[in-house]
Amino acid sequence: MTQYIFLSHSQNDIQKVRKVRDYLEQYSFEPILFNLKCLTDSDELSSLVKREIQARKWFLYLHSKNAAKSPRVQAEVSYAGNIQDKQIFKLNLDETWFLQKIALNRMIKKMKG
């Protein structure tokens, strides 16, 4: 069974985000990433993104200094937080990759458990 995870991230962190995506794919997860050019930080959270967040059991907030400053990312996090039974995880992209992998392994264990 395919297990999709919505990844909320800043486009400014795309290299780190891709590393997380690749790691999750090694464990048979399907991370969902969006980079919609039509959606700017001043736009409302689009209907498509809301539906994708709603449709996924898991939501992973890839926190960073960039993500914390992004109104779009913060709107996604807020929206996910208001959905009943949504499993929300947070990973700090400003940490070392070693610490990120430890956190990801804990998260994977919870999702597979």
Give a written overview of the molecule:
The protein is globular. It has helices at 14-26, 47-55, 65-69, 71-81, 97-112, and strands spanning 3-8, 29-32, 58-63, 87-92. It has a single domain, classed as Toll/interleukin-1 receptor homology (TIR) domain (Rossmann fold), CATH 3.40.50.10140. It is built from five helices and four strands, in the order E-H-E-H-E-H-H-E-H. The mean pLDDT is 90. It has a four-stranded parallel β-sheet, sandwiched between helices. It starts with a strand and ends with a helix. Strand 1, helix 1 (14-26) and strand 2 form a beta-alpha-beta unit. The protein is α/β, with parallel strands linked by helices and 113 residues long.
Which characteristics define this entry?
four-stranded parallel sheet; 5 helices; 113 residues; Rossmann fold; single chain; alpha/beta
Basic shape: globular
The fold-level CATH name is Rossmann fold
Q: Quickly give the structural class.
A: alpha/beta
Instruction: Examine the secondary-structure arrangement and name the CATH architecture.
Output: 3-Layer(aba) Sandwich
Distance between the termini: 14 Å
Tally of structural domains: 1
Order of strands, widest sheet: 2-1-3-4
Q: DSSP strand (E) fraction?
A: 15-25%
Helix and strand topology:
Elements: E1 3-8, H1 14-26, E2 29-32, H2 47-55, E3 58-63, H3 65-69, H4 71-81, E4 87-92, H5 97-112
